[in-house]
Design a protein that fits this description.
The protein is of the alpha/beta class. Helix content is about 35%, strand content about 25%. α7 runs parallel beside α13 and α16 packs parallel to α18 (about 575-590).
């Protein structure tokens, strides 16, 4: 959601901050701002509603701000409408403190009243402004002690960047339930909400722990725990480079990331060693797997849809019951969890607030936890008992593509690994599924090599008001993800339904010309799905089928058909996803929309 960048060095801070904020635009935002400490020890603040270009224009292309220490911010509004006043950074009453904040301060009304009684006036509607005033109120000559006192007053989630004019050589930052990394350079150091913001400057990072405060200067980085004791951290070197987080000639990050899926899938599937699966950082004995009585899979958005695919697959190959929950619902439904429950949590960023809270609740109730995440050392990865990294690399577009398909592939690996250990399927079935997984990157490459028909269909239906997706079993799970992809980037109302539920109300929505995307890949359910396609066609719908070649008869009933390459039906949802990703992308492109930054959405949802 909101993005934070901080810099301390010997060159001008503003260009570094602006460049970092550009790299964080994918997180979603509605305003931006920067603050630097100038040569006289004063804090200069510039902020603007709208896209980052508005801020760049206000600062004459970074030229009007002078100072080598500063913080920047892109805001996704939670408290107060998007405008220049509510934008970050926020200043204290005396102008000596500036604060940028990602997260939500849950007790800000109480703190606001506390400060108003003491003579403080508020300019904005935000929860963040209370932090700036609290810093002024509690400062007594020791900045770390001041930070400690303020943090003890805050309830909620936050990553903070703080400037104090009395320490013009350094800035301060802290994280609690919200992402923040420290970047280490040569004579310059940084913080940011995400590594891609800093890849132009460094590949060496420190992953801050919960509640830790960092003082960042040009030549030093000092980290303190909640007790204000200095702590040391391992330095993590990432193998991403700046080009990985750039478009490389593609018109949008989303299209680039769709085309990166063969490589990303090959990376996550590299755990297949010959005829066995070796999962790094996942340590289960045969007895532990046999004793699993139930598996919970938890995620939000596309991660939830990946979990539904995982449910079908794991139940099929392991013969163990699997429940799938939206993370935002899981911890409030008082889940029934025993010591023999395994909870799998899925998050691209590893920082999704609801998913992190669900993980903690599952652990509190005694469940073993396994994280499927992309970002190395993220909060979920660190707090889970076991972790399987998806190895997708940086994903910049808000609408996930390679993040989703690598999550699905990771769940395939987990399910098939368990099945191999406990021998829950015949050896020939195990070998067949393993072979399908090995061939998956090449099958995706085949789809990407010939997108013309999908592009044509997208152009035909870009003017639709409503689009319906139907399918059965795993095809229904694919339909859910296809509908989400279309609605979030094209703004077309799109819904997915289990095909068998059409007659229970949904078919009343079908009218002449209604586009109905029918996912018909599973051969066991094909006849039923075909019947449902006929039902909507009879009522005037325009049927677009995504089908396996073995189900070619659907061409006789559909207006258009896109076939996926040959693949095991259990593995095919990855291929279906790629087709529907391309369809959604080309629809949005035909409408001329801002595909990488769809309205009202953020890449990493770090608040409830």
């Amino acid at each position: 959601m909101c993005g934070i960048v901080g810099f301390a060095g010997r060159k001008q801070a503003a260009p570094v901050l602006m460049d970092g904020l550009k790299k964080l635009e994918y997180r979603g935002y509605d305003s931006s701002g920067v603050a630097v400490i100038d040569g006289d020890g004063n804090i200069e603040v510039v902020k603007a509603k709208g896209r980052l270009q508005s801020l760049i224009d206000k600062t004459d292309g970074d030229k009007t701000l002078h100072g080598s220490v500063g913080v920047g911010h892109t805001r996704w509004a939670t408290h107060g409408e998007p405008n220049d006043v509510n934008s970050h950074p926020h200043l204290s009453r005396d102008g000596k403190f500036a604060v940028v904040h990602n997260g939500i301060i849950e007790n800000y009304i109480e703190l606001r009243e506390f400060l108003i009684v003491r003579g403080y006036e508020f300019r904005s509607e935000t929860d963040t402004e209370v932090i700036a005033h609290l810093l002024e109120y509690y400062y007594g000559g020791d900045m770390l002690d001041c930070m400690r006192k303020v943090l003890n007053k805050l309830v909620g989630s936050y990553a903070l960047g703080v400037l104090y004019s009395g320490t013009p050589e350094a800035f301060y930052a802290v994280r609690k339930d919200s992402p923040l990394v420290v970047g280490l350079g040569d004579g310059e150091n940084f913080v940011a909400s995400d590594m891609p913001a800093l890849l132009r400057h460094t590949r060496r990072f420190i992953l801050l722990g919960e509640g830790e405060i960092v003082r960042v200067a040009a030549d030093s980085v000092d980290i303190f725990n909640r007790n204000m004791e200095k702590v040391e951290h391992e330095i993590v070197t990432v193998d991403w480079d700046e080009a990985t987080a750039e478009k490389n000639g593609y018109p949008h990050f989303m299209l680039k990331e769709i085309h990166e899926q063969p490589r990303a899938l090959a990376a996550v599937l590299s755990r297949i060693k010959g005829d066995e699966i070796v999962l790094d950082n996942v340590k289960f004995t045969a007895d532990e797997i046999k004793n699993i009585a139930k598996i919970n899979i938890i995620g939000c958005g596309s991660a939830y849809h990946a979990g539904i695919i995982g449910k079908y697959f794991i139940e099929r190959v392991c013969r163990k019951p699997v429940e799938v929950d939206l993370a935002s619902e899981f911890r409030y439904r008082k889940p029934i969890i025993g010591k023999n429950t395994l909870t799998i949590v899925i998050s691209q960023s590893g920082e999704t607030a609801d998913t992190l809270a669900a993980l903690r609740e599952a652990k509190r109730l005694g469940s073993r936890t396994l994280a499927v995440v992309n970002v190395l050392g993220s909060s979920i990865a660190r707090e889970a008992d076991d972790v399987l990294y998806t190895l997708a690399g940086p994903e910049i577009a808000v609408a996930t593509t390679k993040g989703y398909t690598t999550q699905v592939a990771a769940l395939y690996l987990i399910g098939l690994y368990f099945a191999g250990v406990i021998v829950s399927i015949p050896s020939e079935e195990y070998a067949g599924l393993l072979n399908s997984l090995k061939n998956l990157p090449a099958a995706v490459e085949e789809i990407l090599a010939a997108p013309e028909k999908i592009q044509y269909l997208a152009a035909q239906y870009a003017g639709a008001r409503d689009v319906f997706f139907i399918g059965r079993g795993m095809d229904y799970a694919s339909a859910l993800e296809g509908a989400l992809k279309l609605k979030e980037i094209s703004y077309i109302h799109a819904e997915a339904y289990p095909a068998g539920e059409l007659k229970h109300g949904t078919i009343s929505l079908i009218e002449k010309g209604s586009p109905v995307i029918t996912v018909a890949v599973d051969p066991d359910l094909f006849e039923k799905t075909l019947s449902n396609a006929v039902e909507v066609a009879t009522r005037g719908a325009s049927v677009i089928a995504v089908a396996a070649k073995t189900n070619a008869r659907i061409e006789q009933k559909a207006d258009h058909t896109v076939f996926i390459p040959e693949c095991s039906p259990l593995i095919a949802p990855v291929l279906t996803a790629v087709v529907l990703q391309l369809f959604g992308y080309y629809v949005a492109a035909a409408k001329g929309l801002d595909i990488d930054k769809p309205r009202n959405l953020a890449k990493s949802v770090t608040v409830e």
